[in-house]
Model the fold of this input.
Amino acid sequence: MGKIRILLVDDHTLFRQGLRTLISAEPDMEVVGEAGEAGEAVAKAAELRPDVVLMDIGMAGASSFEAARQIRRNRPETKVLFLTMYDDEDYLVESMEVGGSGYVLKDTPAAQCLAAIRDVHRGGSYLSPRMLSQLVDDFRSRLRNGPRVPRFATLTAREKEVLKLLAEGNSVKEIACQLNLSVKTVEAHKFNLMRKLDIHNKAQLVQYAIQKKIIKIPMPA
Done:
């Protein structure tokens, strides 16, 4: 059986070197390449065809999440394992949305990181114990706090505005221009509203907007 082929993606050279040393000591793993930013990671993944991409979230430049989305779209058999310092639920949700197979915190013991690589390579998923505990605590807290608030009521005014414009067929760039916001900010609003509403594609978003009378169904001529 061949070794697990791994691509390391992190903008800190010293950290990548440490990971390479750790992984290279394992008889069933090998590092086939490195990248220092998200755009380079997409190109390297296409060239090297790794089994697992170990990717940092907080890199400068292009979005790690968008890079992961492209890697998974280009080669679905490649697994993406996010390695990050952020114990943030929103980042966790977005990592899963783009096809990530795991979320490992950078203070995770080395043995757990290696176990995570093996788990996602086998087709499983991995979540750092602290993130799992945080999610369970949050779930219990919501249960204790009584009835859930209707999802639409949790949207901010800006998120409702972005929802309407998206449902009307505007692109993220067009919305950013209309609202005088950055594309990154609009993307964040889009992600948050879709997460809150449990919506996963454009068709569902339009359907929801019609149901809530945010937009009207065009009448036939």
Summary: Residues 129-144 form the longest helix (16 residues). The chain is about 50% helix and 15% strand. The chain has two domains: 4-135, 151-211. The mean pLDDT is 85.
